[in-house]
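Fig. S4 source data, part A: sequence.
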Amino acid sequence: MDKFFLKKRAQSVLVLSLIIIVAYGSILITEFDVIKGLHSIPNAIMWGFSNFYPTQESLEKLPSILEKLQETVLISIAAASVASVFAIVFAIFGSKTTKMNGFLSAISRGIATLFRNIDVAAWAMILLFSFGQSSLTGYFALFFVSFGFLTRAFMETIDEVGLHSVEALTATGASYTSIIIHSVIPSSIPQIISWVLFMIETNIRSATLVGILTGTGIGFSFDLFYKSLNYNAASLVVLTIVAAILTIEFISNYVRRVIL
């Protein structure tokens, strides 16, 4: 037992040492001045309190900001909702519990892994070449990331909750379609809804960055005000984004309590 703990402690010390070495090496390569960075924090906080707050003049822009926010929220919900439909099909084919054959399962898992591991900002930049700066670019960027994430999440959900019911129906001679419709989907639907709500929350956060890249939505409004040095209006955009995220999170948490 002592040897086991000594081995774990040695591994922990080794990992910690590697982290410290990498961090120190990064500081040297980037020529980052840690002391200067720490000293600048109070000045940055004071600047934020002095400049980054809404004023009466910036409040006049609230209707246009809310219009852009509405566009962002609707695109986020649409991307997650449509992606969930495709994701559940791929999840059924890719799940170990409901897979039809190994080839389809491998293809479904491979596609999910590919789409999930490419960041939403990378998708936005890739799609800019095809669709330009438009709402469609932002929609597809959010859709692809949502599809990859939800497919993986749905696979795990089906594997967790559907195994026993699938085995029971298979033993009675039920068809594959009947098992999916009458067992897998009903038993998985609460968790599926929960994952979709989580994806909507995540999309709203990501949509701000996507909007900066694609020139649409609330992200574009923030970028426009910030680059024009209108920090008061930019702070109002930030506050509306925070309020929207908190509202969506409150609604999704309430729905989760009801269905789970």
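Fig. S4 source data, part B ends here. The chain has two domains: 2-41, 56-259.
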